[in-house]
C-alpha cells in the first residue's frame, strides 16, 4: 500500500490584485519558500477521508478528486504547514493543493494544474499556486488570464502587523474601485507582465507599489506610510497581502551593498514587530 505525499508553496500576498477588463477579478501571486505538506494513506474499507483538525477544506478537496475518478474508498490525510492562517499567505490553498497531490501520488491518478484549479475553486477563492509558472489568475472562477514565467531572484523583507482576516469572506466581497483605480491596476498589470517576462526588476517593484497603494483604501494596514518610505529609501518594491495582515519590501539581492541588515532593523523599529527575510520562489 503506497503512502502518497504532496507539497505546495504559499505566498506573501500578491504582487498585484484587483480587477481587469472592467469586471474580472484577478491576482498575480507572490510565491515564497514556505510550504504545506500532505500525507495520504488509503483505507479501502472506509468511504470517507479523515483529516487532522482544521483541515476540512483539504479533505473535501480530496473527496472531490476521488469522486471525479469515481473511486469509492477513503483514507487518512495528515496536513502540516509552515504557513500561518488568516494572514493572506495562501495557507488553505496550499493545504488543498498539497493534499490533492498526495492523493494523486498515492493512487497514481492523473492530476493536471487545471483540474486542481477547478476543484480548489469549488471550495473557496484560491491563489493560482497550483501552476508551475506565475499566472494572472481569476481567483473566483479559477481561469488563467495569462502566464508570465518565473520571478527573478528577489529577497522579501516582511512583517506581520497583527490580526486575523477571513480571506475567503474578504475575497467574495465586491470591491468598489474608482475609474482611476482601474486605470492604475491596468498599469500595474502591464508592469508586472513586463517585469516577469523580461526579468525587469524595477517594473516588478513599480507594479507591486501601485497595487499596494490601491489596496490601502480597501484593507488599510498599520505602518503603511512608513513602509512605503522605507521602500523608496532602499529602492525596493512595497508589497502586501491584499486580503491579509502582512506587508513587506521586495529587494534585489545583487544591488544592496550591505544595506539589507539595516533595512531589517528599520522595519523592526518602525513596526514594533519582528521582521523576517525570505526568498521569493523562482
From TrEMBL:
UniProt protein name: GHMP kinase N-terminal domain-containing protein
Keyword Methyltransferase listed: no
InterPro entries recorded: GHMP_kinase_N_dom, PduX, Ribosomal_Su5_D2-typ_SF, Ribsml_uS5_D2-typ_fold_subgr
Keywords from the named record: ATP-binding, Kinase, Nucleotide-binding, Transferase
Keyword Oxidoreductase part of the UniProt annotation: no
Gene3D superfamilies with a match to the protein in the record: 3.30.230.10
SUPFAM superfamilies: Ribosomal protein S5 domain 2-like (SSF54211)
Domain GHMP kinase N-terminal stretches: 61-125
Gene Ontology molecular function: ATP binding; kinase activity
Amino acid at each position: 500500500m503506497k503512502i502518497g505525499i504532496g507539497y505546495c508553496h504559499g505566498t506573501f500576498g500578491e504582487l498585484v490584485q484587483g480587477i481587469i477588463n472592467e469586471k474580472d477579478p484577478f491576482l498575480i501571486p507572490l510565491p515564497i519558500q514556505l510550504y504545506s505538506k500532505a500525507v495520504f494513506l488509503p483505507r479501502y474499507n472506509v468511504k470517507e477521508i479523515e483529516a487532522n483538525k482544521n483541515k476540512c477544506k483539504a479533505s473535501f478537496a480530496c473527496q472531490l478528486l476521488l469522486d471525479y475518478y469515481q473511486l469509492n474508498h477513503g483514507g487518512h490525510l495528515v496536513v502540516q504547514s509552515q504557513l500561518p492562517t488568516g494572514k493572506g499567505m495562501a495557507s488553505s490553498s496550499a493545504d488543498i493543493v498539497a493534499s490533492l497531490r498526495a492523493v494523486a501520488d498515492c493512487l497514481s491518478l492523473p492530476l493536471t494544474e487545471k483540474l486542481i484549479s477547478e476543484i480548489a475553486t469549488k471550495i473557496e477563492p484560491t491563489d493560482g499556486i497550483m501552476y508551475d509558472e506565475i499566472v494572472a489568475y481569476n481567483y473566483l472562477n479559477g481561469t488563467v488570464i495569462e502566464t508570465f514565467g518565473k520571478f527573478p531572484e528577489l529577497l522579501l523583507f516582511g512583517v506581520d502587523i497583527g490580526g486575523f482576516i477571513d480571506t475567503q469572506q474578504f475575497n467574495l466581497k465586491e470591491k468598489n474601485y474608482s475609474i482611476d483605480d482601474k486605470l492604475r491596476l491596468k498599469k500595474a498589470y502591464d508592469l508586472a507582465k513586463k517585469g516577469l517576462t523580461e526579468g525587469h526588476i524595477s517594473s516588478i517593484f513599480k507594479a507591486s507599489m501601485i497595487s499596494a497603494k490601491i489596496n490601502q483604501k480597501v484593507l488599510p494596514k498599520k505602518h503603511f506610510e512608513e513602509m512605503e518610505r522605507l521602500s523608496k529609501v532602499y529602492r525596493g518594491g512595497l508589497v502586501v497581502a491584499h486580503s491579509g495582515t502582512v506587508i513587506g519590501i521586495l529587494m534585489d539581492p545583487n544591488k544592496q551593498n550591505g544595506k539589507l541588515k539595516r533595512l531589517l532593523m528599520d522595519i523592526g523599529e518602525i513596526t514594533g514587530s519582528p521582521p523576517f527575510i525570505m526568498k521569493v520562489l523562482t
